[in-house]
Prior knowledge:
Shape: elongated
Structural class: mainly alpha
Mean pLDDT: 80
Order of helices and strands: HHHHHHHHHHHHHHHHHHHHHH
Strand content: under 5%
Largest sheet: none
Number of helices: 22
Distance between the termini: 70 Å
Low-confidence stretches: 1-11, 213-241, 368-372
Number of strands: 0
Helix content: over 70%
Amino acid sequence: MSAKSLPTSTSENLLDELQATLAHGTVARRVETLRRVTDLFISGAVEFSDDQIALFDDVFQCLIHHIETSAKALLSNRLAPVDRAPPLTVRALAFDDLIEVAAPVLSMSERLDDDTLIETARHKSQAHLMAISTRKVLSGAVTDVLVQRGNNEVVQSTASNPGAEFSEGGFTRLVSRAEGNDDLAACVGLRPNIPRHLYLKLLAKASATVRAKLEASNQPIVQEVSEAVREATRRARSAPSAITQETAIAHALVKSLYEDGRLDEFQVTAFAEAGKFDEANAAIAALANVSVSIAENMMVETRAEGVMILAKISGMSWSTVRSIIRMRDELAGKELSDLESCKATYERLRPSTAQQVLRFHRMQQTATPPAA
């Protein structure tokens, strides 16, 4: 029977034949039956109707429960690149505990939706997660689980995948996991869509460590990655390439508000409470009369003193400062700051002291960076 002429009405006969094979056939006969059915399916998969594919789904599922691992692994390899592969069969293969069976479909099959990939990533082995991390396209919902549950190798593979998308929460976790991990820090820092505040936080924590460790090593990759680190440092000094389109739009909005006389601390509070880092940062910079880059460096410091310095110079109330600190904590995914302690510090801080600290930050910003 050819693939093109396979009618749905043959379902019962084919299943009866399979039942006989399963009940009385040898292992070799079962494997041969699986091979013939697979050949039949692949040769005509493009032209099969949904009902015919459903028939093959029934057939494959009858067979895969009665064959050895090597045959299931071969089936997984053959079905993985087929866009219209039987979906229930592919799902069953993906959930197989043996990675040699699951890996081909987890890494390639277009039949696996995000829900299936997420369920697999939450409950299966690190080898299963590694296979998922190599897929051509990964949504932010899937990478959230990979970055949360995966080991270092899985996270590195996911971060290195150009087809992977990351939510802001995923990027936050990546930046946290990159601390002390040279390869991951360099990889995450070069992701094109990393939110600017997280990029700056990553650079502030990791660049010096990355540079020191790479220069101390003697591997061929040193020069390439060192150049990437130098480029990241250059970008952090507000080179145009560091500004994404979204950041540029935010800066333009704040500039317009400032020039029209409509920028005040109430607007800063609104930006902070909405979690709009770029807008809040640019607004604080304008009101404190500092460059955006200086404000950014002070905003992403681990402690909240930088925020309080800028706010004190701008004459902001504590309620506005509190909103900014909360925004920082939430965007960075860090433990919430001790607001009572921050409030006491802010109330003790003198404007003259804040100006002195700001002059120090300006000196740091304009200092020539040491040669790499």
